C-alpha cells in the first residue's frame, strides 16, 4: 500500500496547532509566516502589515495605525498624541475641551476666540462643567460675578435695577 505524504522541511507550531511550513501562511496575502511577527484574529493568522490594512484603526489626523490606546472624537479614531487644540496645538487627551464647528479647543483658546466675556470680571464665559451664567440685554455675567455694583450682594435669582452700566440690588438702587 502506497501512502501519499507531504514532505516538508519543517513543521510549524503555534498556539497548540501544527502546520507544514508551506501551509503556515497569512490568511490575506498568502505569504509564508515562518517566524515573522503575526496577529491572530478569529483563529486566522495574518502578517502584521495585512492585519493593519484589514482590521486596524487609522488615526484621523496622521493616518497611521493605532496600535494601542487611542481615542474617538466625532466617531473618528485618533492617537492621543494627535488629538490637539485647533488653536494652540496642545494635546487635549485627558483634559476638558470645547468643540466649535467640529474642531476641539482647549478652554483657554475657546475663551479667547469665541466665548462671551463677563461684564464684571471680563473673563470668558464657557460652558465647561455646566457653568451657569446670567444674560441681560447684550451683557453676560458668571453666576458668581452677578452682584450689586455697590454692596456686592449676589443678585442671582433676585430682581435688580440698572443704573447706566451698573446692576444694583433693590436697596441700593432705591437709595440713589
How many DSSP-defined strands?
Answer: 14
**Beta-strand percentage range:** 25-35%
Any idea what the CATH superfamily of the largest domain is called? Cysteine Rich Protein
Number of separate structural domains: 3
What form results from the Cα inertia axes? rod-shaped
How would you spell out the order of helices and strands?
A: EEEEHEEEEHEEEEEEH
Looking at the structure, the CATH topology of the largest domain is: Cysteine Rich Protein
**What's the number of helices?**
3
Radius of gyration (CA) equals 32 Å
Find the structural class using helix and strand composition. Answer: mainly beta
Low-confidence stretches: none
Instruction: Give the % helix.
Output: 10-25%
The appropriate CATH architecture of the largest domain is Ribbon
3D architecture notes:
InterPro entries: Znf_LIM. It is found in: Nucleus. It comes from Apteryx owenii. Keywords: LIM domain, Metal-binding, Nucleus, Repeat, Zinc, Zinc-finger. The protein is mostly beta strands. The chain has three domains: 11-54, Cysteine Rich Protein, CATH 2.10.110.10; 71-112, Cysteine Rich Protein (Ribbon), CATH 2.10.110.10; 117-174, Cysteine Rich Protein (Ribbon). It is 11% helix and 27% strand. The protein has three helices and 14 strands. It has helices at 48-54, 107-113, 170-174, and strands at residues 11-14, 17-20, 38-41, 44-47, 71-73, 76-78, 97-100, 103-106, 116-117, 124-125, 133-136, 139-142, 161-163, 166-168. The protein has a two-stranded antiparallel ribbon. A two-stranded antiparallel sheet has the order 3-4. It starts with 10 loop residues before the first strand and ends with a helix. 16% of the residues are buried. The mean pLDDT is 82.
Amino acid at each position: 500500500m502506497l501512502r501519499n505524504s507531504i514532505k516538508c522541511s519543517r513543521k510549524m507550531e503555534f498556539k497548540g496547532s501544527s502546520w507544514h511550513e508551506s501551509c503556515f501562511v497569512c490568511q490575506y496575502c498568502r505569504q509564508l509566516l515562518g517566524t515573522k511577527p503575526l496577529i491572530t484574529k478569529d483563529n486566522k493568522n495574518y502578517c502584521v502589515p495585512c492585519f493593519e490594512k484589514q482590521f486596524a484603526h487609522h488615526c484621523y489626523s496622521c493616518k497611521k495605525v493605532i496600535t494601542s490606546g487611542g481615542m474617538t472624537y466625532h466617531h473618528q479614531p485618533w492617537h492621543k498624541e494627535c488629538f490637539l487644540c485647533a488653536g494652540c496645538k496642545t494635546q487635549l487627551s485627558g483634559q476638558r475641551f470645547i468643540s466649535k464647528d467640529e474642531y476641539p479647543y482647549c478652554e483657554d483658546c475657546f475663551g479667547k476666540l469665541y466665548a462671551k466675556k463677563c461684564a464684571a470680571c471680563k473673563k470668558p464665559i464657557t460652558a465647561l462643567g455646566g457653568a451657569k451664567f446670567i444674560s441681560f440685554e447684550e451683557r453676560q455675567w458668571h453666576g458668581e460675578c452677578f452682584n450689586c455694583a455697590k454692596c456686592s450682594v449676589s443678585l442671582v435669582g433676585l430682581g435688580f435695577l440698572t443704573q447706566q452700566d451698573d446692576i444694583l440690588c433693590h436697596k441700593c438702587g432705591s437709595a440713589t
